[in-house]
Amino acid sequence: MKISKSIYLFFLPGLFLYSIFFLYPTVSALFYSFTDWDGLSDAYQFVGIGNYERALTGDSVFRKTVGNNLKFMLMVVIFQTLTALAFAMIVLKNTKTNLFLRALYFFPTILSSVSVAFIWSFIYDPSLGILNQILELLGLHFLQQNWLGNSDIAIYSLAITQIWFHAGQMLIIFVAGLQAIPEDLYEVAKIEGASKWQTFRKVTWPLLAPSATIVIAYTTIQSFKAFDLVFAMTGGGPNNSTEIIATYIFDVAFRSYNFGYASSISVLFMVIIAFITFLQFKALRSDRISY
Amino acid sequence: MLFRKFSLAVYALLILIPLLMVALTSVKTLQETFRDPLGLPEDGFQWSNYSAIFEEQTMAGYFMNSTIVTLFSVFLTLFFASMIAFGISRLNNWMGNIMFGLFTLGMMVPAQVNMVPLYSLMLDLNLTNSLLGLILVNIAVTLPIAVFILTGFMKTLPKELFEASTIDGAGNWQIYTKLALPLSLPSLSATAIFLFVMHWNDLLYPLLFITDNAYKTLPLALLEFQGEYSTNYPMLFTGVIIASAPMVIAYVFLQRFFVAGMTAGALKG
Question: Which residues of B touch A164 (CB under 8 A)?
């Protein structure tokens, strides 16, 4: 059937804005990454791959930042996914209590990162905070910490906040994935005398793999984008111990006015994300079965 | 069984206690908070923080800015994205595929990647310290996810319906407004909620483009309270409650839609 040419007009408004405010800046990030532009003056010079060389070999802060980001990502991906999956399996049936609990667990997702940052800054506060007070009550005062001020643990404190923030959202995705598994497969497994673990390994997990792929990919990208949380809770400190790539780009660009260098880190940032996402899809696809 | 119930209760408390703490702290005085950070308000609820924050800050203005930016961003993103989704599913050929690919590519790129050039672009276009600027950028960044969700849905609509209307002489615009939009209502509402939460809570773009108090949105204003009130948590939490109130109220009433909307983007993959 012939479709009227007017259909092309439907793309125009969106494509126009998308090109100007998204595609153009993304492409020019690539362009500026080869310059020494400071973001203010009109003049800049091409420095070839100088910015990339500096990021990959000369910049110890950048290397630390990538390490922090990986620590944060691994902790969030592993613990958030396991928490979400374990709890999804408990609140799977649509009973009244379970619907209420799912709604409650999901709740933090609708808050703004700044609000979550304030809540957890209070929880972690060394003198006022609920966490140290609870440890005191339990007689565990030797575990008390300056949770955000100690550079050895601050990044993990942030990861816990991130998990509190988003585990409920992942839980809901798992619930949807688990509910889509046909009931009769479990019955067959039961008749054949499969143990709980065998049923999980041979029935649940392969059929859950598509949801797991989505949850893990989504969590990974979210953990790289945890800009707001870090920015509002620690600002990257102490001693850059919580600086992640996103906040580092912000600092280099808007505090040191080094737009060219910040752009090259942006490009590397994109490459890292693309690479990790690709690996995950590859790893998880091998476990995938369709029914 | 007991262990399961225990775990469920612990997780529930981990969510509830911090929320309760925010609410209670917002009705305590600073002295009370320092003396007994976790205790109940002893002298009854103090509403003074709420009146103080409205006196000291242009809260109404921030609230208004957030409302304007969110409403326009959500509405226009949905409008443009649904047109694109309609175009892609109508074309249903390589052109449609290219368009789909071009837009969904944007989902992979974190906002921090292009914030540097975007900032200088906004300066050049005189769109910093402007609500319009925020709205335009918001639309551009959320189009990808909206196009992705809506296209997924519109492709499942029966083709015969559109073709029959074409024979009856309906133009593309008529088919879009009279058929495609009403039929896509479930998907549109889910996307709308997703966008509402995202735009209402966005910090990055106001942080980059807004320095003038007259144009600040709630998340940015809230962030800056930190500089002003430092560890005055009663004031900070009063701000948190005011800034979150619309979302929380909407969530209580539209829970099911929220859950569907906030996971739609992830699930359709």
Answer: 14-15, 18
